[in-house]
Amino acid sequence: MSASFKTSRTHPETIPNSDIFAGARRRAMPEFSWEARVKKPQTVAKLTELGRVQLSRTFFMRDFLYSDIAEIHGLSNIPDDPDLAIAAGTRLCEDLLEPLQDVFGRIAIRSAYRSAEVNRLGNAKGYNCASNERSAAGHIWDLRDAQGQMGATACIVVPRFANEWTGPDDWKRIAWWVHDHLPYSTMEFFPVRWAFNLQWHEKPLRMIYSHIPDARGYLTKSGMPEHDADHREWWEPIVPR
């Protein structure tokens, strides 16, 4: 990882399961009632307060709560465990989204947090949602995975990159940039505007998968050739001067 992109966060293996972000949330939202654990909002006022929680320098919780599935099917895409959603979302934003945005400009969020209810329906109706078990610590930020680890995923587009780099293999350029610079867990790439799922996880897999026709499969994962190489020849041309 390039020194200029290292984060100052605690190493994931040292993160306890307790509420480690209470202080940060209190500073960000002094008017919110944070005693004990934060309960799922049941009123517009409480949901508004949750949406105001600042996860990082430029991202707020509200940025990640919209869901097409919830909108069409009349569901509420609200965390059952706001504490865990905020904790995982903070790491996603501070460790991955902010550094990516600092280099490539504004990030567009296509899909991010999904409640267990929304994700379950999306899976049942074939809306390209994995099962809740597989989505835990991914799109379902407030549900730990089977190993008890937390994580968070957002599907994003980087407009400045996607508008300029449209060749059939150009998605690999930003994939390798993230791989060489940021502590991601998984990335999954899609053909429309090079959208990709970007996941932070306590136990990162360091895996990149493509759903792009003619390039479907793993770009890299542990043990594959070039996994630990320097991929500068791929990503150097896309870095803004």
Written overview of the protein:
Strand 3 and strand 4 form a beta hairpin. This protein has a 6-stranded mixed β-sheet with strand order 1-2-4-3-5-6, with helices on one face. The chain is globular. The protein contains 9 helices and 6 strands; from the N terminus they run ααααβααβααββββα. Helix content is 32%, strand content 12%. With 241 residues, the chain is of the alpha+beta class. The chain has helices at 22-28, 44-51, 68-73, 82-104, 116-124, 132-135, 159-164, 171-181, 232-235, and strands spanning 108-111, 151-157, 186-189, 196-201, 207-210, 217-220. The protein has one domain (17-238).
List the keywords:
single chain; 241 residues; alpha+beta; 6-stranded mixed β-sheet; 9 helices
What percent of residues are in strands?
A: 5-15%
- The N- and C-terminal alpha carbons lie at a distance of 20 Å
Number of domains: 1
Low-confidence parts lasting 5 or more residues at pLDDT below 50?
1-21, 27-36
**Strand segment count:** 6
Shape: globular
> How would you state the average pLDDT, rounded?
89
Task: Give a brief outline of the structure.
With 241 residues, the chain is an alpha+beta fold. The protein has helices at 22-28, 44-51, 68-73, 82-104, 116-124, 132-135, 159-164, 171-181, 232-235, and strands at 108-111, 151-157, 186-189, 196-201, 207-210, 217-220.
